[in-house]
């Protein structure tokens, strides 16, 4: 039995709420159970210096956790004077994931910044950030296309992410903190709505796990991401 009482193949309660920031071109509050991540998208009509005069755009991300997003207070990284390696790794992952479904040439010399702020953490903050970040990105691109900043919405697919792991020897979907902190193995899967693999991060926390166990995790992830993409699509359809 999972601590939450969920079936092995059951996601937490998922919500992708829009209309949560009146200033940003796109915004989504991604709620995966008790993990809540606010994702905002800012569109800038300029690109980094290394992309100037190339005709291509850029999508990048920043990620951070609020001091009381966890059960004890953590100092802001700005107060410590530098980002942790974990933060840098996660925000690069978010950026790579969103660029995987963006036609940067069609975007033109425009940059979209996705800010992902963890309001409350209970496992899976990076997967919630990617899934909600896509909704914020899509909303922002629609809005600026309507304003004439870009000619088309340069998305070539959807992208979402989910965690899976071996909990007490059983492959389970969408780990919360109680499972993640004691899992024998855990993995994060980033995939498109058509099943394309963007990135997989997997680690054995105790003993190495078998290929058959990995394939079981992959199957759970595919099913979970299909569900998440359906929620993304329904959320964006509600904005039309």
| CATH fold-level assignment | Ribosomal Protein S5, domain 2
In CATH, the homologous superfamily goes by the name GHMP Kinase, N-terminal domain
What summary fits the major beta sheet? 5 strands, mixed
Shape: globular
What is the strand arrangement across the widest sheet? 1-2-3-5-4
Detail the poorly predicted runs. Answer: none
Number of domains: 1
Average pLDDT: 96
- CATH architecture assignment name: 2-Layer Sandwich
Q: What portion of the residues fall into strands of 2 or more residues? A: 25-35%
Report the end-to-end length measured between terminal Cα atoms. 41 Å
Order of helices and strands: EEEEHHHEHEEHEEH
Q: Number of DSSP helices?
A: 6
- Share of helical residues: 25-40%
Category by helix and strand content? alpha+beta
InterPro entries: ExoRNase_PH_dom1, ExoRNase_PH_dom2, ExoRNase_PH_dom2_sf, PNPase/RNase_PH_dom_sf, Ribosomal_Su5_D2-typ_SF, RNase_PH, RNase_PH_bac-type, RNase_PH_CS
GO molecular function: 3'-5'-RNA exonuclease activity; tRNA binding; tRNA nucleotidyltransferase activity
Subunit structure: Homohexameric ring arranged as a trimer of dimers.
Protein name: Ribonuclease PH
